[in-house]
Amino acid sequence: MAKILKIMGPGLLYAGAAVGVSHLVQSTRAGALFNFDLVWILILANLLKYPFFEFGPRYATATGKSLVEGYQGIGKWAVVLFGLLSLISMFVIQAAVTVVTVGLFAYIFNLSISVNLLSISILLISVLILIVGKYSFLDKLIKLIIVLLAVSTLVAVFSALGIDKEISPEAIRNFHWTNRADIFFLIAFVGWMPAPIDVSVWSSIWNLEKNKVLGYRPQMRDALLEFRVGYIGTALLALGFLALGALVMYGTGEELSSNGTQFAGQLISMYTTSLGQWAFWIISVAAFTTMFSTTLTVLDAYSRVLNPLFKALFPAAWNGVSDKNRLTRSWLALMVAGSMAIIVFAAKTMVFMVTVATTLSFLTAPVLAWLNYRVVTNSQMPVDARPGLFLRSLSWTGIVFFVIFSGVYLYWSLLAWG
Fold first, then answer.
1. Measured between alpha carbons, how far is 298 from 331 in angstroms, rounded to an integer?
2. Is 8 a residue whose pLDDT tops 80?
3. Which of 59, 161, 266, 274 is deepest in the core (most CB within 10 A)?
4. Residues 145-167: what's their mean pLDDT?
């Protein structure tokens, strides 16, 4: 146990990236809209995506390399493909988590400052933390945040079991597979449940950073156990948020707002309804720090991913860079600029931003899942570290699932456009 506690970090950073929009926003909305109808979808999504997230720490531990380097081993085309998918989604993902963070901050402190000004402030503070504190600070911060949120959510869910709420019969609804709006919500819900598959690449890089801190590479079973603690924890938290939405809001006729600040108020109100008004500041701090940690980890992850991506695509230019840390800071500046452009010119509402980001992640999931599978099953992976029959079977089941659901989404989209 002492050994596992020592190497804890990458799995919790994964949790810090995952427990954010998918949990606070999407899982809560799923419960509020459809009661417990989508619990099985939540569990299925976590199960079918598991192999592709596990392949990150598995590959990093076995080879001492990141998944980006693994893609390079398949062929330069794989790196180019991953680079294009990252370019399509990275600014939208960063913008989405930032907008939700800003909504919580504005509600908690009753601010009427513009979303744009608050967003740039949050992003610049995040950049400063990453430049000054680096990985070690992020590693310590995330452990405290995840524990605080987990405990408060668990207590709130059990407290909500006894809530006496007024049910409005006309507000009761169920999920329908023939309803276009329900299908669109489902796609967005699964897109980030438990997280975008991009996070597997981030996880492989965080594992390498943790190894530098430790001064050695942990054994495979220890690295995977550490990852599974984070993964299972995020799945349970997602169930907790769905349960809160179902127990506190479903059937009341109150709809979750698409405005970030108003949504934040409704989310925190769910906790205070369950626990009492005394818990306002505890829950507020837990919710905000959770979303802030997501903003921080996403920003950190993309700035780290862009380095090996740049190295693989432009080796001559990479060799000519004398200060690699300065290059990382340039990626941070690029992320801030690109995210702010999305927020300023394309953000309509919080829900709009979240839906766009989660849908993009869902549509890119089959490709990233297949790339990860290729990396851990080809000749560059040590034979004894390759996934067994069960994980390989689960991987192909997941890939087929993602392809079919992507087809369903595109079919419904064509009908909507028609």
1. 12
2. no
3. 59
4. 76
Instruction: Return the structure tokens found at 253.
Output: 């006729």
Element (H, E) at 51: helix 39-63
Report the 10 Å Cβ neighbour count for 38: 26
Q: Which pTM value belongs to this model?
A: 0.86
Alpha carbon distances (Å) from 366 to 52, 235, 353: 10, 21, 22
32, containing H or E segment: helix 28-34
Rounded Cα–Cα distance for residues 302 and 335 (Å)? 8
The model's pLDDT over 253-292, given as tens digits with 9 standing for 90+, comes to 777 777 777 878 887 887 777 777 877 887 787 788 778 8
In contact, 51 and 398? CB cutoff 8 Å: yes
Cβ contacts of 92 within 8 Å, gap of 6 or more: 342, 353, 356, 357, 360
| Amino acid of residue 315 | P
> Distance of CA 380 to CAs 62, 74, 79, 376, 385, Å?
10, 9, 16, 8, 11
Structural domains of the chain in order of their starting residue, each with its CATH number: 2-417 (1.20.1740.10)
Q: What are 307's two structure tokens?
A: 């380095």
Residue 142 pLDDT class (50, 70, 90 cuts): low
Contact present, 194 and 49 (Cβ < 8 Å): yes
What pLDDT does 5 receive? 46
Number of H helices, E strands in the chain: 16, 0
Q: What single-letter DSSP state applies at residue 248?
A: I
Q: Are 139 and 210 in contact (CB under 8 A)?
A: yes
Q: What is the 3-state secondary structure (H, E, C) of 279-290?
A: HHHHHHHHHHHH
Tell which wins on pLDDT, 20 or 238.
238
Contact by Cβ (8 Å): 226, 232: no
Q: Return d(Cα 384, Cα 406) in angstroms, integer.
A: 34
Residue 194's identity, in one-letter code, is P
DSSP class of residue 96 equals H
26 contacts 242 by C-beta, under 8 angstroms: no
Cβ–Cβ under 8 Å, residues 243 and 157: yes
Q: What is the largest CA-CA distance in the chain?
A: 67
Give dist(CA 384, CA 303) in Å, integer. 32
Q: Select the highest-mean-pLDDT range: 119-123, 137-141, 188-192, 290-294.
A: 119-123
CA–CA dist 389, 387 (Å, integer): 7
Q: 3-state SS of the chain: helix, strand, coil percent to 5?
A: 80, 0, 20
